[in-house]
Amino acid sequence: MTTAASVPPSLYSAVHDGHIRVVQRILDEARQRGDVARIVEARNDIGMTPLMVAACSGSVQITLLLLENGAGPDAKAKSGWTALSMAAALGHLEIVALLLQHGAAIEAKDSYGKTALSITESHVDTVRVLLEHGAVVDAADNQGWTALFWAALKGYDDVVALLLEFDAQVNVRDHNQETAIMQATYCNHVRIAESLLEHGAEIDAQDKDGWTALFHAVQQNHEDATKRIV
């Protein structure tokens, strides 16, 4: 593996800061040496390639330049995140679309088993792009959580609505037998709980401890959620 110490130190800073001319010059010099493949696949101390840095910084032009010079879109950092994961998490919509156009693996999982769809969280436009490109709406992570679980827990109303539009399963169980509506009531996200109920969420479903969505709301003293779901 090529490390950052063995490539021009200016490459990472140029990519991060969006200096495309500097990046182009470094790549041109590497090409003259027959060394461009090694340069674009270099890793820093946390396993990030220049492409990942570009995806994080939001530079569409540099992302495209690196891809055109052979940067692999599916390389993983130590966290298991790919350039797609990073762009999705930050809501860099154009870069997400660009990476998908260049064949990025949409179902690649990080060390927690999360795909880009779950990592995207509140960025509803990015969620839509991923779904329209075939992301599995009910892909589960290592604890059995889908994107719907995460959106329900964190109160992302628009994302929940979009996931339901793409037929997310509302009664999927995680490894503790919990469902998405339990996450919503636990956090007092009333509108999400109502939306899940409208889409067939089982209000009397019990987790491994026998707790229902209502019991979660009561235990947290969430009067709003309690009133709406009884």
UniProtKB/TrEMBL annotation:
ANK repeats (start-end): 46-78, 79-111, 143-175, 176-208
GO MF terms, alphabetically ordered: RNA binding; RNA nuclease activity
Entries under Pfam families matching the protein: Ank_2 (PF12796)
Keywords: ANK repeat, Repeat
Keyword Zinc-finger: no
Keyword hit for Repeat: yes
Entry-linked PROSITE patterns: ANK_REP_REGION, ANK_REPEAT
GO biological process: RNA processing
Name of this protein: Uncharacterized protein
Species annotation: Globisporangium ultimum (strain ATCC 200006 / CBS 805.95 / DAOM BR144) (Pythium ultimum)
